[in-house]
Amino acid sequence: MERNVFMRRAIALAQQSVADSGGGPFGAVVVHDGHIIGEGTNQVTGSHDPTAHAEVVAIRAACTQLGSFSLAGCEIFASCEPCPMCLSAIYWARIERIYYGNTKSDAAAIGFDDDHIYREIALPISERAIPTEQLLADEAMAAFRAWEDSDDKIEY
Q1: 26: nearest Cα among 117, 90, 95, 110
Q2: Residue 64 above 80 pLDDT?
Q3: Which residues, listed in sequence order, are joined to residue 99 by a DSSP beta bridge?
């Protein structure tokens, strides 16, 4: 089955990531029309970039390949259930289906626990662990007004 081929590639990338010591044990591929158009491994520690998760790296590569910010019509195969950040990126990219191998519980069991992030997102801003404060709202609104009035914007 073709889906298994793509998942096996994501798993192989995760295993390679461990062997290369460039990041955590995670791999992902983005598929369009039966072809891999983006691959990624976790590169957090190697690149010193906390956003360089396998899914995000694969999404960036796929967008570059297609020359578009939209991955409508694509699927993603991830060696592990996507974390909140990756899940958000998948939604923003308009990927239509997610396949994963390990669960978030499996990831937590080896030290990659993101349940605290899910809990934080559900809280009102005033109750979150990281203090958050709104500043210069009126001034910030100027950029939104400019966007709203622009005839040259590319909506997404």
Answers
A1: 110
A2: yes
A3: 77
Q: Would you say 117 and 53 are in contact if contact means Cβ atoms under 8 Å apart?
A: no
DSSP 2: H
Structure tokens belonging to residue 24: 């955590």
Instruction: Measure the CA–CA gap between 77 and 156, rounded to whole angstroms.
Output: 24
Q: Model confidence over 109-139: pLDDT tens digits?
A: 999 999 999 999 999 999 999 999 999 999 9
Phi, psi of 80, deg, nearest 5: -140, 150
Active site residue 55: yes
Backbone angles phi, psi at 148, to 5 degrees: -60, -40
Average pLDDT of span 59-87: 98
Q: What distance in Å separates the CA atoms of residue 110 and residue 106, rounded to the nearest whole number?
A: 7
Q: Which amino acid is it at 47?
A: S
Catalytic residue selected from 55, 96, 133, 148: 55
What separation in angstroms does the CA of 17 have from each of 24, 41, 66, 139, 142?
7, 6, 25, 44, 44
CB-count exposure of residue 29 (10 Å: 0-12, 13-18, 19+) = buried
